[in-house]
Amino acid sequence: MAVTQQSANEEPELNPGILTDGAAPLQAMAVTQQSANEEPELNPGILTDGAAPLQAMAVTQQSANDTGQPTEKNCTCGSMKDAQQKIALLEKTVQRLYKSNIMLETKLDAAVARLVTTSILQESPKRCMFYTGLVNSAVFDCLLEYFTPRASGMCYWGSDKKNRSETRGRPREHELGDEFFMVLVRLRRGMSGEELARNFMMSESQVSRIFAAWINFLQRELRMLTTLPSREAIKPHLPKSFRGFENTRLVLDATEVRIQRPSSLSAQRQTFSPYKHYNTYKALIGCTPDGYVAFVSRLWGGSVSDKTILEGSGLLDVLEEGDGIMVDKGFTFPYLPSGLTVYRPPFRERHEKQMPPQAVEETRRIASARVHVERAIARVKSFHILDKAFPITMIDIADQVFEVCCLLTNFRLPLIADTE
């Protein structure tokens, strides 16, 4: 027990072997603590290799600050200012172009409003009559609907008729309604080819081709729609002024259209009118008592007599026995078919100082009835293409133009009322 107590009071002796083997961790900990407290020593090799980028950046920054060259921040600010200036300039340009566009649209609307188009027919019957000679747009639409199936295959002036059905041509540049309207405008208002070309936005050559094709087409189609009514068909519509002339089937009168003076002397002689004292074409028009244009002769030279025109027209061969025709005084006939009655104002004989009262009354009654054919001719002359001297360049279609103008008057309201 004494030995045991002594061992407890004495400090234990450390085994050198144990210290040698177990002190390694303690020494490592001490070294680690010391390394943490001391400043790390830099390897000269590491400084030499790794410091180059840092030194280069420092030198670059210093050089930039010393030389005054723009840094990345300065470049960004400059680019923003340039972009803002460009945006402001573009905004001003857009505003300027916008105002210019508004001004051009206004001018375009004003120019379009001055153009004569089919839409103008819907405005009022007065406008339709002014530009086409038809009473309203409904008549225009009905005629166009009737003509469309036939006009769709129409061969235009100068095209190859033989190959028309064999080859597929170009699509139609203008609608049929616009072409028909253009032809009516030219007939009614007498516009020149240049005016029509500007208004309908086509060339003058196109205007000429379209007009020539349509005028031939209209002559053929309107002829088919025009008939010479019988006496039985006329009687229910006989005006009061024709009482005593109930069998009258036609009222005949001649009219003349001025033309440009031809260059040929023989043509000048043939077309010079002794009545008008200038070069004309002459035609014979036959109206029923109520003003319906039922007959139109072809055009003759102004020097030709009414008798020659009547004989060449073949009208006398169409009239039937019992028919009556009314003419102006001085109108002579090459021959009279059997049973044909002629109503003509009487002449004053040379030996008579004045006409007998019966002859004066008959002259008055015939003149009162014949006034209606003069009104019908006035309707024909309301197509102003006939106002001016007909151009020599259109002489080849003069017959067609005149006849179409005559027959289009039948699509107006009746010239006189049934009870007038």
From TrEMBL:
Signal peptide: none annotated. InterPro entries: HARBI1_dom, Transposase_HTH_dom. Its cofactor is a divalent metal cation. Keywords: Endonuclease, Hydrolase, Metal-binding, Nuclease. The keyword Nuclease applies. The keyword Chloroplast does not apply. Residues 1-20 are annotated as: Disordered. Residues 252-410 form the DDE Tnp4 domain. One of its GO terms (molecular function) is metal ion binding. Residues 176-222 form the Transposase Helix-turn-helix domain. Transmembrane segments: none annotated. PANTHER family: THAP DOMAIN PROTEIN. This is Putative dde superfamily endonuclease. It comes from Ixodes ricinus.
